[in-house]
Amino acid sequence: MRDFSQTKRVVIKIGTNTLACANGIDTDYIRDIARQIGELRKSGIQVLLISSGAIGMGASELGLDAKPEDTSLKQACAAIGQPLLMHEYKKAFDALSITIAQVLLTRWVLNNRDMYLNLRSSIESLLHLGCIPIINENDCVSTDEITAAFGDNDTLSALVASKIDADLLVILSDIDSLYDKDPRKFPDAKPLTCVKEITQSIEDAAGDSGSKLATGGMRTKIEAAKIAANAGCRIVLAHGREENVLSKILSGESIGTIFMPQRKLNAKLRWILNTPVSGTIEIDDGAFKALKDNKSLLPIGIKSVSGLFEAGSVVALGNRAKAITNLSSAELTTLAGKHSSEIRNILGKHRRDVVAVPEDIIFLNE
To answer: Domains in the chain and their CATH numbers?
Structure first.
């Protein structure tokens, strides 16, 4: 369960509260984390670092005593804080002769298949070169991204771990474990050392954000664990200020909470699962049964289509599955209920006669 001897690639996420000190960002802590990451690299482990703190660092630089609520001010703080944060990481890793690389992401990059594949290739190249990619959300370019896209980098860290085939995701927080209830409200709350399945009771135990500078709380960490678990990736949540926390985790010590993986999905299915849908195709029970038998989705099984989308988009198949569609919403509306043999007569002989093939379909809640 905590045997990480075969672990080759680790994603480490550090939260704002863990990085923060009374005067802003704790540079001593950054140096210590760099040292720990350097030790992991010496043992042959590839490391990607997801670092929060840009908005909080920008806010401190401006003399703000709390995280700004106004979106444009958040963006300004991110723009100010990001180079300051990276400067501290560069100094820390330079002392270890380790090269770092900055990677700023938006949800759109991860949702666009071509952009995602380019990103994946770039990260693989950086790791091959021995670099430490330091990844953050590109807060200053999109109001959609800054308000709800990733959630204090917890979701971002899980998506990155999923999409680059990490063996382990470590989330370093200002709390030492997931508890059976909120320890800030209930003195008798007990830590959970292992979560084999994220049930409703586990979700109910998650608290809210507890910091004036952070946006994430335990709930976002639970959501992150769900994403990583579907990639077959183990997740450890631990206190970031535990001495030598990374070496302790990788050596198998029982600190923090470990979330065990669920089903193991290939990279393409994980991308489909974690990409928001552009529309919905309602299908009949016969079509769904055919999908469960590893058959393609055919137009004859379509009852209705909602939303506007192009061929190649990710769509919902009712509330039971997601898929990449070979046909647009306009085409599917025309073809719904028709036999496959009619598709090429209507759309042209070079068009595919199926809506989605089995390798482009992922079932939900399994």
So the answer is: 9-270 (3.40.1160.10), 277-363 (2.30.130.10)
